[in-house]
């Protein structure tokens, strides 16, 4: 029997409130250079410590042992969607990251400007890393000239530096397509093709992109150095069963950065906009407490400083979140889970595969008798090491949302 | 490759004795109210402590993360049967609980008396919760009048209060059927139907139950308030590969309560009857030591007091078992596993999803260097957190019953 079907059949609706607080990239590793402490262990966290005394802890594998996830799979797992079953293409993630509100079926591509020689050979895959302002101007130019191809709407949005995103919104389109990128200099831009040759929808999308190149390249012909562009990760936004239908919970997202709002939107969460600081995010949760059952609150800075390899700043970001935590705790939800979407160890300066620590507290979480919330403590917690996609199920169980299985 | 097939192919028969001692609902959670101790942690358990020093510990997930199992799935997992693959209907479990010796293919239903108005509308789903004596009298009446329908034998047995069980034993029958229960008052009793409409056997069972109603309702017509009855969880006892063929072990069950004897019988265990106390159960094990390879010894009281939310009584039940343990240990089996079929936290007053602690001792279990057997200690044990269905495989491995896999 399919496990999701079982969970679904056992689900009981009630009025419990569940909160998932994500410190992006929270997990870290203890190294000699930092006196064998992780940022979470080195940080002063009186409020997290107080929670730990009445909480269960464990560690979560975001995708599979050894797999380093991007933000997409990391968050999909936290939302209870198997990241191997629900794959979201890079173009889609990139579009979400730029705040584009995608609809199911939209085909999105990561793109970037490049330099072509007279024969159309790619001589610089990043067009000399043009400034963001130049990129914005070029995107504006393309967007003003190419609004539709046939009945398909075309959206173009600039990112940072030489990067941008193109979205095609029309009927009967589908990804994935092969890249319009030779992946090395000295070769022309390949024509994109449907990865699944039997998909008529993907064939149609491939023709559309061929036509897009035909119209766009002449517009850039006289530009230097950005007289061409490459497209990668061309994929459509898949149909994903909504969070609400899957879990019988009305979900809300309180995030600051577009990528996380986009990922929440992907599963049908309502976006509560406006909060800028974590204190404001917690206040927003309190203000909206009655209107939703599940709150996803996203905190970016732990990941950002982990990526920088800045141990002191990552530690401080944790301390700042801890200091704001009482605002949330004044309106304690029935179930509170605090974790990361993956680890971003300072020593790695990037995402990693290390299971992230998780703390779960409710009237029935029990206590693991740990005095703090740390990676090392979580290793000994009652939740063990488990797949991140089960976190929502443990949260639902703690909210008494499951009937007994069998007599 | 199917894992069960692999285990089966590697199985070596030998003369090892294996004992599974189940303290029903053993697992619990530490809460502030009980000074952060579970009943197992609060109990004085010198004999379990002595075992712990030379044992491996861990925690087991009975079905899946967050799923609270009934006794059926809980025990099937302990016996090594995936509870999602081998689902046993509620009617079957209820019949087993009343001590009815089911055969494969028997169709069983949970039933209870209800009150109907003149138009056949259910006005009280529990017939005013009639006394057990009244229920017994009504069941006797029905049983005396309806012994067979066609060639199908009908068995009716009273439970507690308004509850009873009906079993149909005949050829070519199968469940599951929809409920003969509107699940709320103000509606008539629905006619049952085959859940799988393509099953001729289930169609036949549905007709049989329709005929049962036709014969039984007139017999109750003048009774007040119990002039009708509802039937739910109508299912057949599935074919389950026997314990002996699966594991090459001659199994015996030493349980006091009918439900657990029934579950053991479901997988073909021999029932050793007569023992009433845990001391008598352990004595019985010693007396039968030579006649079997695997003993399932079931102790009910930990679950019973957990369901009552009676911490002191659950703790005392553990201490009483511990005090009797030397009787078992005098004839030490090659492998001894001590665990629960699930957790029944006093704070939850019912079964729960929390992984239950398990202790496994043998000459090759190794020592986790734990001084006691507790939930908190088990979190750090060498067995980790694992699916309960693998316990029998670990027991077999410790009994040296598996050949090496590959060269």
Q: Output the radius of gyration of chain A.
A: 23 Å
Tell me, briefly, the overall form of chain A. globular
Stretches with pLDDT under 50, minimum 5 residues of chain A = none
**In percent terms, what proportion of residues of chain A is strand?**
15-25%
Q: Look at the helices and sheets of chain A and give the structural class.
A: alpha/beta
> Sheet bearing the most strands of chain A, described?
8 strands, mixed
Task: Walk me through this protein's architecture.
The structure is a homodimer of 407-residue chains. The first copy, chain A, has 407 residues and is an alpha/beta fold. Chain A folds into two domains: 12-86 and 241-398, Alkaline Phosphatase, subunit A (3-Layer(aba) Sandwich); 92-236, no CATH class. Chain A is 33% helix and 19% strand. Chain A contains 14 helices and 14 strands. In chain A, the strands form two sheets. In chain A, strands 10-9-11-1-12-13-2-14 form an eight-stranded mixed sheet, sandwiched between helices. In chain A, strands 3, 4, 5, 6, 7 and 8 form a six-stranded antiparallel sheet that branches. The longest helix of chain A is centred in the middle third of the chain and has 21 residues, at 200-220. Chain A is globular and about 70 Å long. In chain A, 52% of the residues are buried.
């Amino acid at each position: 029997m399919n496990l999701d079907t079982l969970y679904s059949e056992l689900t009981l609706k009630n009025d419990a409130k569940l909160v998932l607080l994500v410190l992006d990239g929270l997990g870290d590793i203890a190294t000699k250079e930092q006196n064998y402490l992780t940022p979470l262990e080195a940080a002063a966290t009186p409020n997290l410590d107080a929670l730990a005394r009445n909480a269960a802890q464990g560690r979560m594998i975001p995708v599979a042992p050894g797999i380093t996830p991007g933000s997409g799979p990391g968050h999909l797992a936290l939302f209870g969607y198997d990241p191997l079953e629900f794959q979201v293409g890079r173009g889609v993630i990139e579009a979400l990251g730029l705040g584009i509100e995608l609809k199911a079926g939209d085909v999105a591509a990561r793109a970037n400007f490049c330099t072509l020689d007279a024969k159309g050979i790619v001589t610089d895959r990043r067009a000399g890393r043009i400034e963001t302002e130049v990129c914005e101007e070029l995107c504006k130019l393309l967007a003003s000239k190419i609004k539709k191809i046939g009945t398909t709407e075309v959206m173009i949005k600039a990112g940072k530096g030489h990067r941008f995103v193109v979205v095609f919104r029309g009927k009967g389109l589908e990804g994935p397509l092969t890249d319009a990128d030779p992946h090395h200099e000295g070769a022309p831009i390949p024509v994109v093709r449907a990865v699944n040759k039997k998909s008529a929808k993907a064939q149609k999308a491939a023709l559309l992109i061929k036509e897009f190149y035909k119209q766009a390249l002449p517009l850039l012909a006289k530009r230097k150095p950005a007289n061409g562009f490459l497209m990668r990760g061309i994929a459509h936004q898949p149909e994903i069963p909504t969070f609400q239908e899957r879990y019988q919970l009305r979900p809300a997202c309180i995030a600051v950065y577009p990528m996380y709002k986009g990922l929440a939107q992907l599963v049908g969460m309502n976006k509560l906009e406006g909060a800028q600081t974590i204190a404001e995010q917690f206040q927003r949760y309190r203000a909206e407490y009655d209107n939703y059952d599940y709150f996803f609150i996203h905190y970016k800075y732990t990941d950002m400083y982990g990526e920088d390899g800045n141990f002191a700043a990552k530690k401080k970001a944790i301390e700042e979140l801890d200091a704001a935590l009482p605002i949330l705790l004044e309106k304690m939800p029935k179930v509170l889970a605090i974790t990361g979407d993956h680890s971003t160890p300072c020593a790695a300066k990037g995402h990693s595969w290390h299971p992230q620590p998780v703390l779960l507290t409710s009237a029935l979480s029990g206590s693991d008798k740990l005095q703090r919330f740390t990676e090392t403590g979580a290793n000994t917690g009652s939740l063990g090491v488990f797949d991140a996609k089960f976190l929502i199920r443990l949260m639902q169980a703690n909210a008494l949302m499951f009937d007994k299985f069998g007599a």
